[in-house]
Amino acid sequence: MKKREDDALQKVLAILEEEGKTFEEKKKAAICYLEEKEDSLLANVLISKAEEDAAGLLWKKQFWKQGEALEEKNGVLLRKTDRRDKENFLKLQEENPISRTVMNMEACRDMLWKEHVENKTLMCTIESSGVYVGYCGIKNLAKEPWEIAVELLKKWHRKGIGFLSICILLDAIKDRLGVTEFRVRIESDNYASQRLFEKLGAEPNGISEFLIHGEENLRQVEEENLSLINENLKEIARKFNVEPRKLLSHVLEYRLIWGKE
Predict the structure, then answer these.
(1) Strands 181-186 and 146-152: what pairing?
(2) Number of C-beta neighbours around residue 56 at 10 A
(3) For 135-177, how does the pLDDT look when each residue is reduced to its tens digit (9 = 90+)?
């Protein structure tokens, strides 16, 4: 199934990248191709993926045509992510508890890397004095407001690199693309990231689902983890104007307007 979907997606992307036709003409051709597969569910999924890839690729090309390295500040450089970063990126994922359980499976490692560099993402590798530190960027250029992603190797935490890197990234996006409004999602117990983005000017904007979906599943997670509610969680719940238990099943949602006076 996965190979069939990948093959079909590549064909759809090839159709959408053909020269000399409008996007609607290319979309119609892609739908006709998928209808021949007699799989309407697969068709809908692939068309959605292909549309996001096509829209994201336009933004990505516009951004990188102005240079594949961003301004360097205090020894920190952001540049376009490429194949040389794969192994370092995977080492970074091994430090992530969510990803760690699948990192011994080669197919999963390849999937994580593929998702990191797919057309709809805009990812920058962060270097400090020429050494790989992590990455930051936009998760999906086809969905507004754009969601910021940032992740650093643990040994580079608490050195001000995350703050500086996001400043460089958002300055470049504003200058190159004119985009100034962003979305940030952070776990309720990730106090360091909350402080970082609040320092950057991000403001509470509710909560959202992440990984866990469905009313029954959300309720079950909350019931099973009620003992985790402490004073810190209650304080954050007050800041976001939600019940503390909701932070057991949701993540924090921030809104960031960059460069506002």
Answers:
(1) parallel
(2) 20
(3) 999 999 999 999 999 999 999 999 999 999 999 999 999 999 9
